[in-house]
Specification:
Length: about 280
């Protein structure tokens, strides 16, 4: 549990970024523009990016953000340790005002996420986990100034939570559901009836796997390493796995264009192999 004090700056950054995001969310000034890959970006993405960057720079560990320029991203040495951040994951959900967006901060070491934070500012929910140190969630964590380390220690809820039923629950994207993901869900439905399907935006899907609220998160289209690193660290710390599909290797941050292959995340306590060919 030392990670709460070790990575205190990341906790502070996530909550301060959450406050800046909500300030934009509660205004009508989103300033939506399109990036070169045609994905949307808002004033909230950029404010969050600046806050997290400036706070994490004090750790003397390089910072790589989704919103950095491609030139800056290429300069970061990904051989050692670096922060990998998505200042606002679920920009489409943000723009459509459904509240399903997150702040993601991961620490990557030797190509593997070893620590992750996901903050859901609209729900006051915070998730964090570190390799060999477990994963936890906190409720009623308001955006803004971070509570003390002792507050985090005494209010933590260990993940996974206990599960109340045997139905296999699959969680999938709300805004980007590829035909391959739909085919995978159909095949699971045939093999493991009854199957329940949930849809949610952003890294909230990883949080649902880490808590055990959902059992499977299939992603059969290629999302980026900043979309997955924090969630993977939390799921693995909780005892689950995030594996490439269909090979079944542990997902790693090894791609020069930061684009992940297809993957399947499996909740703690579920045997991963049964879902692979
Ligand atoms: N085909 C694709 N290629 C790259 N990124 C993708 C993608 N489909 C979805 N994403 C990104 O994945 C993130 C989460 O999406 P989803 O809610 O569908 O899980 C979003 O990140 P951002 O909002 O940070 O840009 C979205 O842009
Ligand atoms: Mg983003």
């Amino acid at each position: 549990m030392d990670f709460i004090s070790t990575y205190r700056t990341a906790f502070i950054a996530a909550l301060e970024a959450g406050a800046a995001i909500l300030e934009v969310y509660n205004s009508n000034e989103f300033n939506v523009t399109r990036k070169s890959d045609d994905t949307p970006v808002t004033l909230a993405d950029m404010k969050s990016h600046q806050i997290i960057h400036s706070l994490l720079e004090s750790t003397n560990i390089p910072v790589l953000s989704e919103e950095d320029s491609p030139e800056h991203q290429k300069k970061i040495k990904t051989e050692g340790k670096y922060w990998l951040i998505d200042p606002l994951d679920g920009t489409r959900e943000f723009i459509s005002r459904n509240g399903e967006f997150t702040v993601n901060i991961a620490l990557v070491e030797n190509k593997q996420p070893v620590f992750g934070i996901i903050y859901i500012p609209c729900n006051n929910l915070l998730f964090a986990g570190a390799k060999n140190q477990g994963a936890y969630m906190w409720e009623e964590i308001a955006p803004g100034n971070a509570p003390s380390v002792s507050f985090f220690m005494s209010n933590k809820i260990k993940l996974p939570l206990s599960k109340s039923n045997d139905v296999l629950t699959v969680v999938a994207s709300k805004s980007h559901l590829s035909p391959e993901t739909i085919d995978f869900i159909k095949s699971i439905d045939q093999k493991f009836k009854p199957v329940q399907i949930l849809q949610s935006g952003s890294s909230i899907k990883f949080c649902k796997i880490a808590t055990g609220e959902a059992d499977l998160y299939p992603r059969m289209d290629s999302i980026m390493e900043w979309d997955t690193a924090a969630g993977q660290a939390i799921i693995e710390a909780a005892g689950g796995c995030v594996l490439t599909w269909p090979d079944g290797d542990t997902l790693r941050c090894i791609h020069t264009d930061f684009r992940n292959p297809n993957f399947l995340a499996v909740a703690p306590g579920r045997e991963c192999k049964q879902f692979f060919p």
